[in-house]
Structure formats: structure tokens, C-alpha cells
């Protein structure tokens, strides 16, 4: 009975996140001071989960060219606490720069893509699962792609869920992992569109 309850709650949370359009209680990423960045640029790679949309394979040079022309705006993050969103946003910035993706502010008129994230948590015993959905929009507001997933990790604060705020149990490393996976999937999706 307990397992079916957890499954039902998981499905409801995923559905709620998928339908989320409310921008209440969001964190504006530009309010966070960006971390010192590395100047190292890693070549873009394609992941196995990215669907191929062209007949010809994309070379790493083509992918790098696409990524270098991308100007990504990170929209306010919905659902995550400021404490949880801070390492997420910092790692999004770092990973994007490593991939050769230029980040743009909300006033930038040359934005090519907007990334908007919706987050929720679920406590399962001593573990916390972060459920996330990222929508990728064009500058006109048309949704182009969706990235979603979940990251399960041990809670860093065993009493966090008892107080009603399970975000206190989410480690910075968990949020950084989500950021890395997000940018990697975004880059793979862009690379798959080449041609």
C-alpha cells in the first residue's frame, strides 16, 4: 500500500510540473552572483538519449559551431528554494560556458533560446528525489523542446521533511548534477538539430 501511494504521488507531482505555468515564488538567476569561471571549452558530444532528426551525422565541428552561436537565457526557476537554486544556477552558468554556450540576460535582444525550469521534491525515507522539467523556448515564447528527469540522493538533513520543507534536505551536489545533465542534454538536442 505504501509503495502505491509513493507511485501515485510521484505521478501527480510529475503531472503538476508538466502543466506548471505559474511564475509565483521564482528565483531570478541574474540575482545570483556568477562564480569564477573556467576558460576551458569542452567539445560537444551527443548522448544516446537524443533522437536523431537528420539523415547525415553531425560532426563535432558542426555541433561546436551551433553551440557557439547559441545565446541562452535562463528564466526564473519555479518551485525550488533559493538555497537549492543557488548551486543549480551557478553550475548551469559554469557548464554552459564549458560547452561554449553564451549566457544572455533578460534584457538581451539577441537571445536564441530561453530555458525555464520547474522543480519539486519528494521525500522517500532517508532519500530525497528532486523532480525537474525544463522547457526550452524560442524568443517568441514557442516551446521547442522539453527536458525532464529526477535525481534521487540521500537527504543531507534527516529532519528536513518533518518540518515541511524537503528542500533543506537537498544537497548542493544534487542540484549541480541536475545542472550538468540539463546543459549536456540541451547541447545534445541542439547538436541533433544541425543540418
Structural summary, described in words:
This protein has 195 residues and is α/β, with parallel strands linked by helices. It contains four helices and seven strands. The protein has helices at 2-18, 60-69, 82-98, 172-192; strands at 26-27, 71-74, 77-78, 102-104, 113-124, 127-137, 143-154. The strands form two sheets. Strands 4-2-5-6-7 form a five-stranded mixed β-sheet, sandwiched between helices. It has a two-stranded antiparallel sheet with strand order 1-3. A hairpin with a 2-residue loop joins strand 5 (113-124) and strand 6. The protein is elongated, with a radius of gyration of 17 Å.
In short:
The protein is an alpha/beta fold and about 200 residues long.
Amino acid at each position: 500500500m505504501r509503495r502505491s501511494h509513493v507511485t501515485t504521488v510521484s505521478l501527480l507531482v510529475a503531472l503538476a510540473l508538466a502543466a506548471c505555468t505559474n511564475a509565483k515564488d521564482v528565483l531570478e538567476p541574474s540575482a545570483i552572483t556568477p562564480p569564477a569561471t573556467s576558460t576551458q571549452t569542452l567539445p560537444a558530444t551527443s548522448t544516446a538519449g537524443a533522437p536523431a532528426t537528420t539523415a547525415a551525422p553531425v560532426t563535432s565541428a558542426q555541433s561546436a559551431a551551433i553551440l557557439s552561436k547559441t545565446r541562452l537565457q535562463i528564466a526564473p526557476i519555479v518551485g525550488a528554494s533559493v538555497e537549492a537554486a543557488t548551486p543549480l544556477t551557478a553550475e548551469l552558468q559554469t557548464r554552459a560556458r564549458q560547452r561554449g554556450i553564451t549566457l544572455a540576460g533578460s534584457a538581451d535582444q539577441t537571445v536564441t533560446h530561453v530555458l525555464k525550469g520547474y522543480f519539486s521534491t519528494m521525500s522517500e525515507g532517508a532519500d530525497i528525489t528532486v523532480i525537474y522539467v525544463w522547457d526550452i523556448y524560442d524568443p517568441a515564447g514557442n516551446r521547442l523542446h522539453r527536458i525532464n528527469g529526477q535525481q534521487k540522493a540521500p537527504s543531507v538533513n534527516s529532519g528536513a521533511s518533518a518540518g515541511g520543507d524537503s528542500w533543506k534536505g537537498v544537497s548542493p551536489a544534487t542540484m549541480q548534477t541536475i545542472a550538468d545533465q540539463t546543459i549536456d542534454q540541451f547541447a545534445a538536442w541542439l547538436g541533433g538539430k544541425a543540418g
